[in-house]
Structure prediction request, 1271 residues.
Amino acid sequence: MVQSVVSGLLAGGAYALIGVCIVLVFRMVRVVNFAQAATGAMGAYVAILLFGSGWSYMPAGLAGMVAGVAIGWLCGLVMSQWFSESSTVARSTVAIAMLIALLTLGFRFFGTTARKIPEIRPGSTVNVLGVNVGVSTIITVVGAIVLAFLISLFLDRTTLGIRMRALSERPHAAELLGVPAKRLAVFVWAFAGAISTAGMLLIAPSRQSDFASLGLIVLPSIAAASLGLFRSLGLAVLGGLLIGMIEGGVQNFSSIAPYSDAVPLVFIAVVLMWSQRGEVWDASR
Amino acid sequence: MHRGKGMVSLLAPTLGVPVFLLLVPVLVSASWMYGATSALIVATIILSIGVVTGHAGMISLCQMTFAAVGAWVFLWLQVHAPGVPFLADILIGGLITVPVGLLIALPALRLRGENLAVITLAFAVALNVILAVNDFPGIAEGIFVQKPAFIDSDQSYFYFCAVVFCLVAGTIALLSRTRIGASWLAVKYSERATAALGRSVGRAKMSAFGFSAFVAGIAGGLLVGQVGAVTVQAFSPLFSLTFFALAVMVGARYPEGALIGGVLSAFIPVVLDAIGVAQDMGDLLFAFGAVVGLIGGAGVAEAIRAVCRSKLSEAPSHPAFEADVGAPPGTAAARPGKELVSSALALELEGLTVRFGHVTALEGVSLQVPAGVVAALIGPNGAGKSTLVDCVSGLIRSYEGVIRLDGQEIDRLPPHRRARLGLRRSFQQDRTIPELSIDQYVRLSLGRRQSSQLSRTAVTEMLTFFGCPGPQYRVNEVDIGTRRLLEVVAAVAANPSIVLLDEPAAGLAQSESEVLAKRISEIPERYGPSVLLIEHDMELVQAACSQITVLDFGRVIAYGDPADVLADETVIKAYLGEEITL
Amino acid sequence: MSGKLATRSYAGAGLLTALVAAVVLAACGSSDSGTSTSTSADTSPIKIGAVSAITGPIPIPDGTNGAGAYFDALNKAGGINGRQVDYMPLDDKSDPALSAQLVRRLVEQENVVALAGGESLVGCPVFGGYLKKSGIYDVMGGAATPQCFTSSNISPTNVGLQDDVTAGLIYASETLKKQKVCAAMYNLGPLNASYPPALAVWEKSTGKKLAYYTTSLTANTDLNGIMLKVKDAGCDALISNGSTQAAAPLLKAAAAQGATGLTQIFMGQEYTAGLPASVGKLGEGVYSTAEFEPFTGDTANLTQMKADLKAAGVELTALGQSGWLAAKIISDTIKGIKGEVTKESVGAALLKLTSYDTNGITAKPYSFGPGNAHHPNRSVKMVQIKNGKWVTASDWIHVDEYDK
Prediction:
């Protein structure tokens, strides 16, 4: 049982990383980026292609992250140029359209052929208290925690970070104060593109790596972000790890193991309904 | 004449849709019938999204999941109850999907916007995996659904689906003219306003989800009937996402929008094939088109209708506030079945105390508004006036003290019940419902019996009295200042015991304010209710009211005759601050 | 506001007009294709269609790619009796509704004379009846669901999931002499119906039972969890049927969970030229079923196939072999028709085709013929990855001999 739970941590780490991206984008632009995992998957696939044509791991990974940045940048540009004033429905629809576009392009470019997925330390595991933990798992989990911590520091301590927080809480006031709203928003999207690429690269070796499945990792990541109501980075990390562990634990019981896809629903339902139980009236209207 | 043109602009799409569908098999060759049927089924799904998102404004990313439930029930009946006819199977499938829709509506009572979107998506994924593990009934055994003979060919099944589509679209059109449909639109724009109009928000949301699920469930049955077999992939969450985006793009509220969406989804792959582009590029094209379409503003069908309407009807004229309006046709009847309990106190507050955390917004406020009186509530900014109105109308649930309406304690009641009992209010910021016609908006605030008893002439008379355009115009064709007056009309039309008006003159010119003051002072005599008026405009207050209560820092600091109160030193100090002695 | 409203409505009107125009054009365009008639000196193209899961949740473009490669080479060499073949593979994205629609399009608008090479995962139950009603026949490339093998109008060239699984199990227990055979199969919707009969044949003929069995794998399953259970059950052989992209994660999970000494046996769709590279060292010793003569061998009968696939830039895969063979069969059948090439004459020729020599590509001759079930290919060879390459590991395993 413990082994199952621990083996779910790798996925949990990836959910945490992408969950952090979702929180960042939500705070900046007030939209749940349904296309976040697909963006990361695109970047990861670029890395995989380069790796397949002879590049070594690090340069391929970095090039993939650059691709993730580019895609994030493009999505951010579209969103902030034309939809910064739009309704929630319109913005969500655009995010969904981006997801569909990325899934289609991803399939088109990367097809169905099996490719060698690069891995940080192929096959190596560490034995912690009688449980096998993959090195990738450790890197992913620690990476997610460190990243959330660093981003929080950045938002708290640096001028740029404070500007971004101002932008996310009071966009109009911040703009009037001279904070470059569009540029910052696009910057956040691009950054999220890089991080989600890293997350996907870490999780891809152990998952069925067809594009659609990787893209749908966005749902448990959204569930992770929901723990902090799309606002807290730390809680998004915690949420991701929790969901990963729960999914791992569920695998242990063969009667409910096939239903592990339903874990995000239970998680979201519990978290959101509990936190919003007092919201009798729509806060804004 | 206006009415005629309005009818034409409405009738055209309503009749146009069935006529168009009737002509399709004639215009198009027989081999396209199958694809046209698929288009119709997608259009039906889009109609369901039109109900829950287009009308009620809630994001639902699980419509294909509802369709899956409908398909599941349909197949179950086909396999286990072969005696039940095909048509009944489809209908039962839709009906059994309704409880599932109501289940999803429960989170919608507390979750909104992205939160609701996320939970519906999670539900779609969860149900998808459940269906994937436990297959649809009969599929593993290789069942193939047989259609009854009269709809067995591609062409006849197309007609069948067309009939179903028209019935559904017609029902939606009818519903949107009733108070249920109006309450959906109301909930989209403001939940507080919906409750203040006497409609239960929860019921509006649940009815929207329930009906939407019904339509989607029927579409699921139609799909299985058409294809003969089905896999869980046909209802994948990705389809829910895609159809949602498509519905937003085409304007799912109206049947012509849904048809456009259906045609796009069914025929773009064909067009792509014809020009030699691969199938999956269709999705890319659609995504691109959705983004471009949304840039221009969502809803192709809505935009077209709006332009047609604006071309066919004129902009509302603003009847200048007429200084002298005759007596209304028959003075306000006594409120049916309700005698005043105590000696005519419309509203009584006793020791009302409201705390937000450490901040005390109201402390021990006591207030009495007799029947037939226009009273004012004034005070500097931050005194707690709007809090008081929110509290009295029921939007703030935790408070101390007692509120009595006509002598009856109403503290346990939610806002819409308080409204129905006879406590109406208007809002400080505009909370009218833009997409309704003025007539629909006013009638939304009435009970069913009241609405049938109130003639259109009476409504028009009331509107003119308050300086509003006629009932045939849309609320969004009217400027903000006048919209706030519409709130007053809707409140008064409900024949309540008391009307709380929160700064109704904001947005009016000085001369109009003067006339409004006169109108407000005539409300009790002319229509019945007492008035509690919150205002900053002292001239208006003096002209309209016979008693004033002054609040400062949440406490009542003065009460009584306008002349006395406004000359009171404490009141002046409260507004102007402490005198500075040099 | 009216300005923006006007823009939106003009955009909407423009969109509508463009759409209607496109639909009309498409309708006109394809109805121009007319009927395929032929006179003795006819040079008009022969139309052959296919409905296949080219994209979608489980994409398998190999079949139609393989068939396309055959037709390309054939056309370059002059076609069939001087007539070019116009091959139309359509993508149903594993959507039953789309599948039904596309087959109607092929038969009623494009007027194809036959279907060949398709690998639709959802098509057979959906258009089996329609094919019969329309009198058109399908030499299917990659059949999956049981209905594909029990249709009067379909005869697939491949072995199918059910027999694949049985063959793998038989090889594991009878040839490799494994004591604890296990199976971790993917949940593939309607294809799940193949698993119980596959298992039943093996259990009945060998008297053995699986040590661990699950059919719940999906793309999101945690493979580490599965491998843990496999290890706990003490399996020494594991059958699995993921896609090629699932191979590496599965092997990694096995290694991570310390399931050494486990012999892995994959199913036919994973037998591709590119798989060994994608799994690297972990793939050493992994088996797979091969539904046709393994292309990694050097047998002469595969030379043309390999050349055709190479010329078309198609990867060498078992599913591609399937499509290529289907194309060859239909072409040879059409070549033998005297007189007009129509849907009816092709159908008649196929109904007479009781034995087609595949020159060793399949163990036994292919056949169509009359009857309500067609399953000509029920034999499998085992291949294994050795030194990073696939090699043939066994002779033909005839599953029909075990299924008595």
Q: What stands out?
A: The longest helix of chain C spans residues 2-31. The longest strand of chain C covers residues 379-386.
